[in-house]
């Protein structure tokens, strides 16, 4: 028999409001592991394009993959006008070159990831509870905004862990 816990709900917050707040905390990361910001901060420019022995990609390729994938999810999630175009897996999701194309590319990619995450969080904030779980009309596999939020958080956590490991292998991780 299920029992209702006697826990107090934060005043004035609905289940959907609490869920959105927890989703944003999950997107920000760091609850059980390094955050995105910790993983990218202070990465030496000379190592950004280095592929460690035994790994298939550089820190630059991981960073760009995170940016491309998150942007794709954001674009998919706000496809109300039908302009979204599916990327080709894996070719369109991974940069071919191990090295950043310019000295400012690393910071530009980091800034874009942060900006796109903020855009996604604004999308979460702008929806009502029903829309959060409603299947997108353009979805082929039942996707909804809640699922896409979990997808961004899961994908980023996975690759942030890889980025930390890569930095450790290069001797460039100081926590």
Write structural notes for this entry.
By secondary structure, this protein is an all-alpha fold. It has helices spanning 15-28, 36-40, 59-77, 105-125, 129-133, 145-169. α3 (59-77) packs parallel to α4 (105-125). The longest helix is centred in the C-terminal third of the chain and has 25 residues, at 145-169. The N and C termini lie far apart (46 Å). The mean pLDDT is 92.
Q: How many strands in all?
A: 0
- Judged by helices, strands and strand pairing, the structural class is mainly alpha
CATH topology: Four Helix Bundle (Hemerythrin (Met), subunit A)
Low-confidence stretches: none
Broad CATH class: Mainly Alpha
Q: How many helices?
A: 6
- Estimated helix fraction: 40-55%
* CATH H-level superfamily: dinb family like domain
List the helices and strands and how they pair.
Blueprint: H1 15-28, H2 36-40, H3 59-77, H4 105-125, H5 129-133, H6 145-169
Helix pairs in contact: 1-6, 3-4, 3-6
Short descriptors:
Four Helix Bundle (Hemerythrin (Met), subunit A), 175 residues, mainly alpha, single chain, 6 helices, 51% helix, globular
In short:
The chain has 175 residues and is mostly helical. The chain has helices at 15-28, 36-40, 59-77, 105-125, 129-133, 145-169. The protein has a single domain, classed as Four Helix Bundle (Hemerythrin (Met), subunit A) (Up-down Bundle), CATH 1.20.120.
């Amino acid at each position: 028999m299920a029992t209702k816990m006697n826990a107090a709900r934060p005043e004035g917050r609905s289940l959907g409001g609490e869920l959105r707040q927890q989703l944003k905390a999950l997107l920000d990361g760091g609850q059980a592991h390094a955050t995105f910001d910790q993983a990218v901060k202070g990465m030496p420019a000379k190592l950004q394009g280095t592929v460690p022995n035994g790994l298939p990609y550089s820190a630059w390729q991981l960073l760009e993959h995170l940016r491309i994938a998150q942007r794709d999810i954001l674009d998919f999630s706000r496809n109300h006008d039908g302009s979204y175009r599916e990327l080709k897996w894996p070719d369109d999701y991974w940069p071919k070159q191990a090295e950043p194309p310019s000295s400012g590319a690393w910071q530009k990619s980091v800034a874009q990831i942060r900006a796109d995450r903020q855009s996604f969080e604004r999308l979460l904030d702008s929806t009502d509870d029903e829309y959060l779980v409603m299947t997108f009309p353009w979805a082929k596999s039942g996707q909804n905004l809640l699922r896409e939020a979990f997808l961004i958080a899961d994908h980023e956590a996975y690759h942030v862990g890889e980025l930390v490991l890569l930095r450790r292998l290069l001797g460039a991780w100081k926590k």
